[in-house]
Amino acid sequence: MNELCIVTTGGTIDKIYFDDKSDYQIGDPQIGRMLEELEVAFRYTVIPILRKDSLHLTDADRALIRSTIEAQPCPHVLVTHGTDSMIQTAKVLQGLPGKTIVLTGALSPARFRGSDAEFNIGTAVGAVQCLPAGVYIAMNGRIWDPERVRKNLAANRFEAI
Question: What pTM did the predictor assign?
Answer without folding.
Answer: 0.92
